[in-house]
Amino acid sequence: MAILVKYDIEFNNIFELIYNTSVISDDYEIINLEKSKLIVHYDKNTMNVASVVIEQNSINHLKQWSIASDNFKSKIEENINKNTEKQYIFTDKATINVGKIIERSPHPKSEKLFVLKVDFGNEVKQIITNTTYTSKGKYLAWYNAGSLSPDGNEIKLGEVMGVSSEGMLCSADSLGLTDFKEEFENDVLASIENNQKDMKLGENITNFWPELVGL
Fold it and tell me: Domain 96-212 belongs to what topology?
């Protein structure tokens, strides 16, 4: 999973495919194709790709922010690999995943913050939030560190008033799904049988909300 960002409408043929905002890009490679140009931004020490800028007039896509389809992402990676001698590493960290709140406690240094333990199936992460509806047992959507929110906020590992945080709660409003605010505040797996929900922990949000997928 990767995030697809469209630049200002004045540059309506320029997009950026975000793989991992945590990668510090210190080099780039320009790949000229027959009908498009790809600019790969990467860390030259690890060869991890941070993002790929895509210049292609034939792309007709109106969303400013969306989740790239696996098919679109695979085509971009295939074109890069066919036209470079470099061995790039495409690690998808720009993800939004389903997680279940298994513990909620007050932040030790703030009355307005909460420390959450969120189960993603194969791991439990600690996430700080100020939202009051984040009660134990809810299945909600979460930005992982390395992702990018629609308002341009880069999600990073860090600390909030001395307590570590490994992600951020994802709201319906931030994704442009205002008609589904109730689901995103209570249960993003509302369409799944209760006895099946724990098996979905850690999965990409697009498996349940395909409206978020762009190209």
Answer: OB fold (Dihydrolipoamide Acetyltransferase, E2P) (2.40.50)
